[in-house]
Structure to design on (313 residues):
């Protein structure tokens, strides 16, 4: 990413991300041969069925999204090992960036963010040594940065130790390969009001304050309603940009299937309030959110400028 484009990305007053990747790919009902024996590994589709991934990305671009997240949420060595793909990290991440770029097709004002998930192992719970996690994140980040992403996002973070470990790994990769590349951090606050390992949003903001990250916000777990108190805290206490990327409402299990109840217009209305009244300047959709949700969000935010925030010091 050029320094000029880095500055342009950072200067965008409002960034609208795309919607759900995994659940949207699931709804495409791809034939068995598309998975090449790796059913459930959505990241493998970057190489086994790139046309499907590009088609999904195009739907979100056509809906008005400014930013595409790469289909790489689980594309670290740790997660890919569950499918016997641990030696194809660079190939899968590189292909994912290529697919997102193909969907954008040089349209101006469109960006690609490299998605890095929390893996399936948390260091605070003793699942994985810190060094092993750092190495896996660095390997994935290096592939994404070399492939030309416009930013990185550490998303669905559930453990402060995991966040700091991954963040330091990404910062080191960016310092070496793309100085100044924006890094976004998005945590998941469960219904009980904390991350999975017990830290609340205040602890997260305090712990991450020293790091040079582009934004801090929330994604996944719940719909926008349950995020209100946490967004309010960040709005008043986090000096950087604030992001909000909720699910399509709180997930429910009906007849053995997970469904998300929030329709596009109510979703967009609630998200507009975050921008207008809380100064959120990065928005999008997580699990369940479709191109229709993003289209409604784009319409609702037409002409809207994020509120100027006053941050407590």
């Amino acid at each position: 990413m050029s320094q000029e484009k880095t500055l342009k990305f950072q200067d965008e007053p409002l960034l609208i991300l795309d919607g759900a990747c995994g659940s949207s790919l699931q709804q495409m009902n791809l034939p068995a041969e598309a998975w090449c024996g790796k059913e459930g590994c959505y990241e493998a589709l970057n190489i086994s069925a790139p046309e499907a991934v590009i088609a999904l990305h195009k739907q979100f671009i056509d809906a008005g999204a400014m930013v595409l997240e790469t289909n790489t949420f689980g594309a670290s060595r740790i997660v890919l090992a569950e499918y016997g793909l641990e030696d194809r990290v660079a190939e899968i991440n590189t292909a994912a960036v290529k697919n997102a770029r193909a969907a954008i097709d040089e349209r101006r004002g469109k960006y690609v963010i490299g998605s890095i998930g929390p893996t399936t192992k948390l260091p605070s719970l003793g699942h994985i040594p810190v060094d092993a996690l750092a190495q896996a994140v660095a390997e994935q980040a290096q592939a994404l940065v070399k492939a030309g992403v416009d930013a990185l996002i550490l998303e669905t973070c559930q453990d402060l130790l995991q966040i700091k470990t991954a963040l330091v790994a990404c910062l080191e990769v960016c310092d070496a390969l793309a100085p100044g590349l924006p890094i976004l951090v998005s945590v998941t606050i469960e219904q009980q009001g904390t991350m999975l390992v017990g830290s609340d949003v205040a602890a997260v903001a305090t712990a991450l304050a020293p790091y040079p990250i582009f934004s801090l916000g929330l994604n996944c777990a719940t719909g926008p309603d349950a995020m209100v108190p946490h967004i309010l805290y960040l709005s008043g206490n986090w000096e950087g940009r604030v992001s909000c990327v909720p699910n399509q409402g709180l997930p429910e299990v009906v007849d053995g299937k997970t469904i998300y109840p929030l329709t596009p217009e109510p979703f967009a209305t609630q998200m507009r309030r975050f921008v207008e009244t809380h100064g959120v300047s990065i928005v999008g959709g997580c699990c369940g959110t479709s191109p229709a949700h993003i289209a409604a969000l784009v319409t609702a935010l037409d002409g809207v400028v994020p509120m100027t925030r006053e941050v407590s010091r």
Summary: The CA atoms of residues 77 and 86 lie 5 Å apart. Residues 3-300 form a domain with the TIM Barrel fold (CATH 3.20.20.330).
